[in-house]
Specification:
Layout (H helix, E strand, L loop, with lengths): L2 H15 L26 E3 L2 E7 L4 E3 L5 E3 L1 E6 L9 E6 L8 E7 L2 E4 L7 E4 L7 E4 L8 E9 L2 E11 L1 E6 L10 H10 L3 E2 L2 H9 L8 E2 L4 E6 L14 E7 L8 E7 L3 E6 L7 H10 L3 E2 L2 H10 L8 E2 L5 E5 L12 E4 L9 E7 L1
Parallel strand pairs: 3-12, 15-18, 21-24
Antiparallel strand pairs: 1-2, 2-5, 4-10, 6-7, 6-11, 7-8, 9-10, 11-12, 13-18, 14-18, 15-16, 16-17, 19-24, 20-24, 21-22, 22-23
The site of 2-acetamido-2-deoxy-beta-D-glucopyranose (NAG) has 3 residues, from loops.
Length: 360
């Protein structure tokens, strides 16, 4: 009675730790690529039937704290009947495509989730040939590509689906000024702002929505890039088309740049507090606490501006010691003609209001 679960567990573990060999598993069998133009489905023929695995071609969008289902279905052509014992393996591709991260493996109703996905991932099987993955309480770093792999005996087929988080990219410079962060420090400053280092997709999306920033910043894959809408001399020259300028991969310890951080929708709210005479940073932190909240981080202010349309033409302290304010509807005496989060930098003195964050 005890043996079966143990055996299953051992098999699941073996499945998980094995590196991914899509086309060679120690046996030879006839492998025929299908001739669809899109080249997405990879199929093998066995017993005269072929196994086909399909996910969604369109990216699946979600946000911080939500539950999401990554669809995956398989089928046999022709159908081999209802009872086949298959294994399902979900893994997450890394930004740099080096190693995959195990997410979950399943045989029948038994499954195991791994690492950060423990307790947050399970298989959704509403229909007979479904192998969809459910991730609960989605986190910023869940953004990326996932491989759904179905194994039936020697047959091993897969397809890849893209999970994208709705969010906002913002450039970050620490108080000490421009180009002070190596890769690891860039990771940390984004985390301190309630965000993570952006990936290329996210920066590209931000650029297509209008982000123009003439300082190079780290991305999650260890490359350094910057988004330019309006070509100009100090930003790659006037003859280069608008786009993402790239310095390529840089040395993660030695080279120093700014950071591009990514923050998603908020679980809570951001609000503004002030006193007639303004506040120091310390007083500002205290008044947020008195209101049952905490001083907002930069990523939370950007998220509130983008997703909750927070508009406030008064400068307020944030947790990192910077002073900023969010403008959705540009108007006189509230900064430039475009919407955005305005920054006064990191004032060493002065009295301001404060932006607080409270979880719902
Ligand atoms: C996500 O799913 C869990 C468990 O199924 C549930 O408790 C929670 O309320 C869901 N969260 C959202 C945001 O729907």
């Amino acid at each position: 009675m005890l043996l079966l679960p143990l055996l299953l567990k051992a098999t699941l573990l073996r499945l998980a730790s094995g590196s991914y060999h899509p086309f060679y598993n120690g046996f030879y069998y006839n492998h025929i690529m299908n001739d669809n133009d899109d080249g997405q489905d990879k199929v093998d023929y066995f017993n005269g039937a072929r196994l086909v695995v399909e996910t969604s071609r369109d990216p699946v969008y979600s946000y911080n704290g939500a539950n999401v289902t990554l669809p995956c279905h398989y089928r046999y052509e022709p159908d081999l009947g209802p009872k086949r014992k298959i294994r399902i393996k979900w893994s997450k591709l890394r930004d740099d495509f080096t190693k995959e991260q195990d997410v979950l493996v399943a045989i029948g109703k038994t499954y195991m989730a791994f690492g950060d996905f423990k307790g947050r991932a399970h298989i959704h099987q509403a229909s007979r040939h479904e192998a969809s993955l459910v991730i609960t309480d989605v986190r910023l770093k869940d953004d990326g590509k996932y491989r759904c792999e179905v194994i039936d005996g020697l047959e091993d087929e897969n397809d890849v689906v893209d999970l994208r988080l709705k969010g906002i990219v913002f450039p970050y410079q620490p108080p000490r000024g421009q180009y002070r962060l190596n890769f690891h420090e860039a990771e940390h400053v984004c985390q301190d702002q309630g965000a993570i280092l952006a990936n290329f997709n996210q920066l590209f999306q931000a650029w297509s929505e209008g982000l123009d920033w003439c300082n190079a910043g780290w991305l999650a894959d260890g490359t350094v890039q910057y988004p330019i809408r309006l070509p100009r001399k100090p930003c790659g020259g006037v003859h280069l088309a608008p786009g993402i300028r790239s310095y390529g991969p840089r040395h993660r310890h030695l080279h120093r740049f700014d950071a591009f951080c990514f923050s998603s929708a908020l679980k809570g709210e951001v609000f503004y507090l002030d006193r007639p005479a303004g506040m120091t940073l310390e007083e500002a932190k205290q008044s947020c606490q008195d209101a049952g909240a905490e001083i907002a981080r930069v990523g939370q202010l950007y998220s509130a501006w983008k997703f909750l349309r927070l508009d406030r033409c008064s400068a307020g302290w944030l947790a990192d010691g910077s002073v900023r304010y969010p403008i959705v509807t540009p108007r006189a005496n509230c900064g430039p003609a475009e919407p955005g989060v305005r920054s006064f930098g990191f004032p060493s003195k002065g009295r301001f209001g404060v932006f607080c964050y409270r979880e719902r």
